């Protein structure tokens, strides 16, 4: 197999342990209550997210694929030859494949993903399509400093690929911190190829997070099912609801889990009280104008070298350099 975790110990191939119970107790003890959005992505959550991407209202994935379909060759030209491609999140193999197909003499592909199963699957899919390309999976939290595996030969540049508008899950300050960390990892000659969802008619944005089939609601509430299973809490799923509204001032979707009634939930030894209609903040999905994104990049010491969009200008892929 071409899966070669060069220079990695067993330890580094396992996800970092985080004390889930502690994270959840802290978040539910805060006012307002909040839980981090990475908690969505257990096995079932990742599968539900893939189903979200197929919903007619969820334009992001379709538009990003349309964009890659039209511009992948141009993007590959801008990145140049001898690229080591490091992807943040194992991602949708489809977009990655479109990019890898056009890259000139790529040195290695390094998917960075916190969940071992999705990581294994994405490597499996890509290994079959690119038998010559060294794959160096890294099971790690991409928001923490990474120790990238030693490449099989010296790359001309390291490009960090961060598609899907996942950057939108971080508020502005956190996003700038993450981009600055990425700037360190890519080095002087490196770059960041990043997907950013664009501002548009709020009705279209809201619909994308409130699909008629209810898949997004299921995805949101799955976080509680995951906690019940993994930390033994006793959330009653039918006593909570999904809510996603666009906040035009902040330029973002704000997703909450709302308590349908007054109730108490046991989380470890702690009893967490909920008022009727009390909300847990679980996700931001920030939307950017091209100017917004350039400002964010500048805060991280980066400049936007190129911007590509789909024909309807719904979504953007941007190339950031030092
Ligand atoms: C994968 C983070 C880009 O915010 O649009 C989709 C996650 N949440 N529907 C997004 C998500 C609800 C998605 N990202």
Automatic annotation (TrEMBL):
This is Putative methyltransferase. The keyword Transferase applies. Transmembrane segments: none annotated. The lineage of its organism: Bacteria, Pseudomonadati, Pseudomonadota, Gammaproteobacteria, Lysobacterales. InterPro entries: EgtD, EgtD_Methyltrsf_superfamily, MeTrfase_dom, MeTrfase_EgtD-like, SAM-dependent_MTases_sf. The keyword Methyltransferase applies. Pfam families: Methyltransf_33 (PF10017). One of its GO terms (biological process) is methylation. Keywords: Methyltransferase, Transferase. It comes from Rhodanobacter denitrificans. Residues 23-320 form the Histidine-specific methyltransferase SAM-dependent domain. One of its GO terms (molecular function) is methyltransferase activity.
């Amino acid at each position: 197999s071409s899966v070669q975790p060069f220079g990695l110990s067993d330890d580094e191939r396992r996800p970092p342990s985080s004390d889930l119970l502690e994270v959840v107790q802290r978040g539910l003890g805060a006012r307002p209550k909040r839980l981090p959005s990475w908690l969505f992505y257990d096995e079932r959550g990742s599968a539900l997210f893939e189903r979200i991407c197929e919903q007619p209202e969820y334009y992001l994935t379709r538009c990003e694929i349309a964009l890659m379909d039209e511009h992948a060759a141009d993007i590959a030209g801008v990145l140049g030859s001898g690229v080591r491609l490091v992807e943040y999140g194992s991602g949708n193999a489809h977009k990655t494949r479109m990019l890898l197909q056009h890259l000139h003499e790529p040195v290695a592909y390094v998917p960075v993903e916190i969940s071992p199963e999705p990581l294994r699957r994405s490597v499996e899919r890509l290994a079959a399509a690119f038998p010559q390309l060294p794959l160096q999976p890294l099971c790690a939290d991409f928001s923490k400093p990474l120790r990238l595996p030693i490449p099989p030969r010296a790359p001309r540049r390291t490009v960090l690929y961060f598609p899907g508008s996942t950057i939108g899950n971080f508020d502005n300050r956190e996003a700038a911190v993450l981009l600055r960390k990425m700037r360190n990892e890519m080095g002087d000659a490196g770059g960041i190829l990043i997907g950013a969802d664009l501002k548009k008619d709020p009705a279209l944005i809201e619909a994308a997070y409130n699909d008629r089939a209810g898949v997004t609601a299921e995805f949101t509430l799955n976080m509680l099912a995951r906690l019940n299973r993994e930390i033994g809490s006793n959330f009653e799923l039918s006593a909570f609801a999904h809510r996603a509204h666009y906040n035009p001032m902040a330029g973002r979707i704000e997703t909450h889990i709302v308590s349908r009634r007054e109730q108490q939930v046991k989380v470890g030894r702690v009893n967490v009280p909920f008022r009727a209609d009390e909300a847990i903040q679980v996700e931001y999905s920030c939307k950017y104008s091209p100017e917004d994104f350039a400002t964010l990049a500048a805060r991280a010491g980066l400049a936007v070298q190129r911007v590509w969009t789909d024909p309807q200008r719904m979504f953007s892929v941007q190339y950031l350099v030092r």
